[in-house]
Amino acid sequence: MKTTPTDAAPPSDQPEGMSRRELVAGGALTAAALATSGAQRAQAEERSSVAVASANGLEAVGRAVAQMDAGISPVEAAVHGVAVVEDDPDDVTVGYGGLPNSEGVVQLDSCCMDGPTMRAGAVAALEGFRHPAQVALQVLQRTTRVLLVGEGAARFARTIGFEEENLLTEKARKIWLYWKANMSDRDDWIPGPGQTEDSDVQWFMNTYGPVRPTGTINLCAVDGNGDVGGTTTTSGLFFKIPGRVGDSPLIGAGLFVDNEVGAAGSTGRGESVIQIAGGHTVVEFMRAGKSPEAACLAALERLVQATRVPYLLDDKGRPSFNVKFYAVNKAGETGSATIWSGGRHAVCRTGSKPVHLDSAYLYERDPK
Length: 368
Ligand code: ASP
Fold this sequence. Notes:
By secondary structure, the protein is α+β, with helices and mostly antiparallel strands. The chain has helices at 5-8, 38-45, 58-69, 74-86, 132-142, 150-160, 170-182, 199-208, 270-275, 278-287, 292-305; strands at residues 50-54, 108-114, 119-126, 147-149, 217-222, 228-234, 255-258, 262-268, 323-329, 334-340, 344-349, 355-358, 360-363. It has one domain (49-363): Glutamine Phosphoribosylpyrophosphate, subunit 1, domain 1 (4-Layer Sandwich).
């Protein structure tokens, strides 16, 4: 049987051309691991990098651009950038402190992709490791495979040396328990004394409302050479069925990168993004000549056309959920669009501070 070159080549600790991509025991990308040669730095000074992300990625895009300006590849810079959100216990949609599945277990999904090599890495339903994007990067850099799931992904992370911990914060546990107690009056759970008045529960209700919300960070990056990379990382749909995997770890859905064109990713209702291969679709619209923003809008139009089941439509036949796309092209132009108005995204360029920009949209939200 003929094997592909990829199958024939066993992984080595230092893949060819990746000598500066050091593995750091414990999983953190330290300054030492990100150090570059003087020649690379001098070259980087002349060039301009750009990163675009979901609105929760304001600090992350700044970090990613700083990394690219220091000569780090876009995919590594993206993974390093989103670590700040994965670490943040107050972002209940990503990494440590992410809201758990229906059984109270935090399961994380992530992928990353490197434009120049078109290599990708991903993990899904990963438990016990706060930086799934870094684990995904290790899948990319140290294996001949793309996607590891569940216990297999956890074993891989352990083998590599990432630190294992309980990711369920007290805040997330209280919100999950509140959800259980208020889901139905026909199960075994009822609200406990003072549960509704709890400040963390109140924060959750004020921030996300009574609907079952979602959240994620996607970050797409292009450096001054026009090389492209990106990552998406999430705790997924709040209180999901254990084992449920959304778009975020799926290459072509929650993220797609093509070094000839650019990169695109998504947040929002993952199942709908999967159904139209969202990230890939946005990139293909850019390849056909659309700007990043126009490509995001065109992909959303296709997603709306594909939304046919009544339980996903409002009384005017429009999607009752939201999806957001983010994109950057090889020339460094960025764009974003959402189904429903009111969305923002984060952008940073070399020499500028990170900013929030309004995203384009398909439908104006009805006034309340
Ligand atoms: N897309 C993520 C998922 O479906 C959630 C989100 O971005 O809100 O898991």
